[in-house]
Amino acid sequence: MHDRNAAPLVAVAGPTGSGKSELALHLAERFDGEVVNCDSLQVYRHFDIGTAKLTAQQQRGVPHHLMDIVNPDEPFTAGEYARRARAVIADITARGRLPLVVGGTGLYLRALVEGLFPGPARNEDLRRRLTDRETRRPGLLHRLLRRYDPTAAARIHPSDRHKLVRALEVCLLTGRPLSSWFSQGRQRLEGYRVLKLALNPPRPELYRRLDERCAQMFRSGLVEEVRRILAMGYPETIKPLEAHGYRQALQVIRGQLDLRKAIYYAQRNTRRYAKRQWTWFRHEPGVVWLDGFGDQPEVQTAACALVRQFLTDS
Fold first, then answer.
1. Tens digits of per-residue pLDDT, 117-148?
2. Which own/partner contact pairs does 260-265 have at CB distance under 8 Å and 24+ positions apart?
3. What is this structure's pTM?
C-alpha cells in the first residue's frame, strides 16, 4: 500500500522511437511538470544527433534535467545516475512541480526507484586488465565467471562484455560472487509514489519509424558529429561511440563501411535494441502500458487521465 502523503513521480518509458519525449512534453505542459532525462546516452555532452536529443526549441520551455552533464570519456554508472536523479527530483518536488522521469534506459529507472545492490565501486585498472584479456582471448571472461559465480554466468550472455566485467570485478574485489550481493537489501526511493507509464506502439510501424529516423540521422550529419567529437581529442574507444548509429558512423570514418551499409546496420541494431527494451519493461513491476505512440492524441488523452487520477489519489 502506497503512502498517500508521499510525493508523486511519473515515469514515461518504452522502446526507442515510441514518442516518449512528445508524451512527456504533453504531460509537463498540463501538470506543471519538469523532465528528468533517463537515457544513458543523453547524459553525454556533444552526442546530439544520434541520441535524438531535443533542441532547446523542441523542449517548448519545459525544463529538462540530467542532459549534457558528463564528458564523453567520463565513466557514468546507473548508481551515479540514481544519486543525481534523486537530488534533482527532490528539488523539483520542493518547488511544487511534478517530476517526469523520461527515457528508455530501464536500468537507470530501476536504480532510481528500487535502488542498486550495495556492491563495490568501479576499479578502472582492474576493468582495463579484464577487457584486455577478453580482447586477446574472446570468451575468457565468461569461462572465468562460470568458475567464480556460476549463477551470474548462467544469467549473463557470453558476449555481454560490460556485465561480465562488472560481475568479475565484484568477485575479485570482494571475494564474494555477484549473485550473493543481490540477496542484500537495496536502498529504495523514499517519500514518493511512482506511476510508471510505458508506450507500446505497433511493432511494424515502430520499426518503420526507426528505419527512417536512423537514415535521417545520417542525412543530418551523424558522421560529421563523430568527426567533431574525435577532433576534440576524445579517443575512438569511449563508451558512447559503442552505441547504435555512432558505432557505424565511426566505421564509416575508419573506411570499414560505406554509408549504405552503415545505415543498414544502424537500422538493424536499433530495431533489436527496441525489442530488448520491450522485454525489459515487460518484466518491470507496476508498469501501465499505453498502446500506441506518444504523439497520438488518443494516447496523450489516456495518459493525462491516468496522471490526473494518480495525482488525485496522492
1. 667 777 888 999 999 999 999 999 999 999 99
2. 262/218, 262/223, 263/214, 263/215, 263/218
3. 0.82
